[in-house]
Amino acid sequence: QVQLVESGGGLVQAGGSLRLSCAASGSIFSINTMAWYRQAPGKQRELVATITSGGSTNYADSVKGRFTISRDHPKNTAYLQMNNLKPDDTAVYYCYRTQRGRNYWGQGTQVTVSS
Q1: What span, in angstroms and rounded, lies between the C-alpha atoms of 92 and 8?
Q2: Model confidence pLDDT, tens digit, residues 20-46
């Protein structure tokens, strides 16, 4: 089993920045992919960004140029740096990890962007 613990959410004004963290623990396997998803009220959960264990990244069009996903292998932690935040970025952000054919989710952290 793998446990994912997110932190770093909060309330910020439009144009501001936040950094989310996701710490993984438990049965860690070196080959994996980590990602951030988000879910706004009344909407489906959507993919925000992914990063492989090799460092390849992918972003949703809506966040390209504003968000950056990264990871620290020794700490088993992934990050999501969010700049120039917009009210439409308001959502619960979830950390996700896949390894050895199994998927794991964090509990979510709220990000609220005021206009």
Answers
A1: 12
A2: 999 999 999 989 999 999 999 999 999
Q: Please report where in the chains the tokens 């992914």 appear, as a residue.
A: 50
Spatial neighbors of 106 by CB under 8 A, at least 6 apart, are 4, 5, 6, 22, 94, 95, 96
Among the listed residues 14, 10, 7, 25, the one whose alpha carbon sits nearest the alpha carbon of residue 99: 25
Torsion of CA 49, 50, 51, 57, to 10 degrees: -60
| Cα–Cα distance measured from residue 111 to residue 87, given in angstroms and rounded to the nearest whole number | 10
At residue 111, the pLDDT reads 98
Map residue 87 onto helix, strand or coil.
helix
Tell me the CA end-to-end span of the chain in Å, nearest whole number.
Answer: 40
**10-13 and 109-114: which strand pairing?**
parallel
